[in-house]
Amino acid sequence: MNKRRLSGALAPAADESKATAAGSWRAYTATNSGSLPTNRVIRKRHGDGVAYATINLGSSTYVALVVTPRVFGSIEEQLAESLAIIESVLKKQHGLHVLVSQTVFLKNPENRSICERLLAARYGRQLPVTTFVFQPPSGGASMAIEALSTGGESVRIERPHPQVLAVHHDGLRWIYCGLPPRPAAQDIYKSVINGFGDMEECLAVAGSAFDLIIRLWLYLGNITGPTSGLERYMELNRARTDFYLRIPFGRRLGVGGRERIAFPATTCIGACGSNLAMSSLALNTSRKDVFLLPLENPRQTPSYHYPLVYSPESPKFVRGMAVVIGREVVTWLSGTASILNSESQHINDIRKQTEQAINNIEQLIAPSNFEAHGLRGAGAKLADIAQLRVHMKRPQDYLICRDICTQRFGKTPIIYTTADVCRSNLLVEMEGVVFSRRALED
């Protein structure tokens, strides 16, 4: 490998972190290395405290990891162990791998400053785009990390801004942006508008733009709480609607299929406290064989057509955003819950709500739905999901929800958190990313 083309390697681990990764973890990594078969897009692995998927995308390889500490010590000890596990996984990949983004889920918001200090010491100038989300991980840990790395002969990394990182390969430029949590106790509308404005400025520094965002995450504290006579989520929707009025989503990337509305795939989920955090993924490319395919579920009303009873301004997102890259298809799944048409289903039943959310995902990515949207030969199964997040309103539902997800999703890396959902009668919400290949027509 030409290592000069791939800047931003992992900083050396601290001695105590190396020691944490020894023993049983060494045995796991020694028996689970190897190249990815060329006829498979995703290969999934599990170890103690980690699950990850290795993905082939053009000339690059991605690794999507979910890490939960195995020993519940101090936050410093849990973070050191998590970073050691990540480093152990990446060292077993072929060639140099760079961590490009990570989402750190925290039980206690007060631990954010400790984590920031330790991460800065660990990575230095090679710090990946980092988003702190104040959601307690399920299972008892004080923190958990969802991370993404990339490597390959043609991969080039640039860091134009402290909160932005760009990955180049195969004529594609993926731009990761993460903004720190900002106060949003009172004026939600202003907080959202200002947050979007800051994100727009960060993307501009990176040579990208807000209209090139294909995936967006919004974490709002006390999401169903009251503000100005409305729920806080409703005020977020009002701000999002107004900001989007001037954003021509999809125009520069090109939109295929029959549905031409190209709002980003989005998750808007609750968090502890009252802050607002944001992160996004944008795509710049001039390749003629790359285009967007916004996906809607035939059994669900598009969110932007929801009746006013749910919000004076409807949520502006698509159920899924597929990026078609020649034969490859990458599909980002928006936050998905137990909703049919526009109505919540199976009130107070975590088993049925979990099953319904999974069924909705399955329907969304099915080949028949891709064909209904104008793209034949595409589509995926639940097994093609590379990474998943499951947010549950009630901590006591964790084991029930986890058992159902394990049965339906198999070895897919999943992170489970406790978080309020945007409707008070919804108990669970899921999101993820899917990698698949399509059959090219003659």
Question: What's this model, at a glance?
Answer:
Helices cover about 25% and strands about 35% of the residues. It is an alpha+beta fold.
Report on the architecture of this protein:
The protein has 442 residues and is α+β, with helices and mostly antiparallel strands. The chain has one domain. It is 24% helix and 33% strand. It is built from 9 helices and 22 strands. It has helices at 15-20, 24-30, 75-91, 112-123, 188-205, 232-244, 350-365, 367-372, 398-409; strands spanning 42-47, 50-57, 60-67, 98-106, 129-133, 143-151, 156-161, 164-169, 172-182, 213-221, 226-227, 230-231, 265-271, 276-285, 290-295, 320-325, 328-336, 339-340, 343-344, 385-392, 414-418, 428-437. The strands form 5 sheets. A 6-stranded mixed β-sheet has the order 1-2-3-6-4-5, covered by helices on one side. It has a 6-stranded mixed β-sheet with strand order 7-8-9-14-10-13, with helices on one face. Strand 20 (385-392), helix 9 and strand 21 (414-418) form a beta-alpha-beta unit. The chain starts with 14 loop residues before the first helix and ends in a 5-residue tail after the last strand. Mean pLDDT is 90; it is low at 1-39.
Strand line-up of the largest beta sheet: 1-2-3-6-4-5
Instruction: Note poorly predicted spans.
Output: 1-39
**What is the domain total for the residues?**
1
The structural class is alpha+beta
Quote the distance from N terminus to C terminus. 35 Å
Q: Total number of β-strand segments?
A: 22
Tell me, rounded to a whole number, the average pLDDT: 90
Q: Nearest-angstrom radius of gyration?
A: 20 Å
Principal-axes geometry comes out as: globular
What percent of residues are in strands? 25-35%
> Number of helix segments?
9
Helix content: 10-25%
Biggest sheet details: 6 strands, mixed
